[in-house]
């Protein structure tokens, strides 16, 4: 399951006006740049935390369980994700993402997946705005996952939902789409990718709360 991705800098490289503030590695409970439709119906970027908190969650939920993944197969059915799927879809633009191969229950080998012959990949996410007790609402997102491509299936049984360039407008909501049309773009990616085993990773930062993956 994907637990890390990298985002690059250079706004000029993306003709969709995606702007990243710095080159960075993003892990759960950290912030990333997310591309969504703004109030005027044009794409904009927003800084959001990876770790979805439902809008209706009680105040203490900010320090409770967060959802980092949502399954494409059931995203329109689960109450936690259903409204965000219908109204708040977005993309994270990545240079690479990590997948883990379980060796033993306590040991995982990390692999870095990168696009071949292209600059970046667009991963589907859903987002939510949680009011909470603070003065500024917290915006959070969950990464949508699908069954794996043939490449990813060699190490694990899920992968991020990579959105084809031609489907960006559909997923972001720039063009009207039915539930079936939206779910049709959430499929194992057949884009060419390379995968290499990563070096021994540093211990991940301790999250401020337990994480929950896909909802079944």
Describe the structure.
Helix content is 9%, strand content 36%. The chain has 216 residues and is mainly beta. The protein has a single domain (5-201), classed as hypothetical protein yedk fold. The strands form three sheets. Strands 3, 4, 6, 7, 10, 11 and 12 form a seven-stranded mixed sheet that branches. A five-stranded antiparallel sheet has the order 2-1-8-9-13, with no helix packed on it. Strands 5-14 form a two-stranded parallel sheet. Residues 11-18 and 60-64 have low confidence and may be disordered.
In short:
This protein is mainly beta. It has a single domain, classed as SOS response associated peptidase-like (hypothetical protein yedk fold), CATH 3.90.1680. The chain contains 3 helices and 14 strands.
Structure characteristics:
seven-stranded mixed sheet; mainly beta; 216 residues; single chain; 3 helices
Topology at a glance:
Blueprint (H helix, E strand, L loop, with lengths): L4 E3 L16 E3 L4 E7 L5 E8 L15 E2 L1 E3 L7 H9 L1 E6 L1 E9 L2 E9 L5 E10 L7 E9 L12 E2 L7 H5 L6 H6 L8 E5 L13 E2 L4
Parallel strand pairs: 4-11, 5-14, 6-11
Antiparallel strand pairs: 1-2, 1-8, 3-4, 7-10, 8-9, 9-13, 10-11, 11-12
């Amino acid at each position: 399951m994907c637990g890390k991705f990298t985002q690059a800098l250079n706004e000029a490289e993306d003709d969709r006006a995606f702007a990243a503030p710095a080159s960075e590695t993003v892990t759960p409970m950290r912030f990333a740049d997310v591309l969504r439709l703004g109030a005027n119906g044009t794409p904009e970027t927003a800084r959001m935390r990876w770790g979805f908190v439902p809008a209706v969650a009680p105040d203490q939920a900010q320090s409770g369980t967060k959802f980092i993944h949502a399954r494409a197969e059931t995203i329109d059915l689960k109450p936690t994700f259903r409204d965000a799927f219908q109204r708040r879809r977005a993309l994270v633009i990545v240079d690479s993402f990590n997948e883990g191969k379980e060796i033993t229950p306590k040991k995982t080998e990390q692999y870095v997946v990168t696009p071949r012959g292209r600059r970046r990949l667009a991963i589907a996410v859903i987002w939510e705005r949680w009011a909470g007790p603070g003065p500024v609402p917290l915006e959070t997102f969950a990464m949508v996952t699908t069954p794996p491509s043939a490449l990813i299936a060699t190490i694990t049984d899920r992968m991020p939902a990579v959105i084809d360039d031609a489907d960006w407008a559909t997923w972001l909501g720039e063009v009207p789409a039915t539930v079936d049309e939206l779910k049709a773009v959430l499929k194992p990616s057949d884009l060419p990718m390379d995968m290499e085993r990563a070096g021994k990773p540093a211990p991940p930062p301790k999250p401020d709360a337990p994480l929950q993956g896909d909802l079944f």
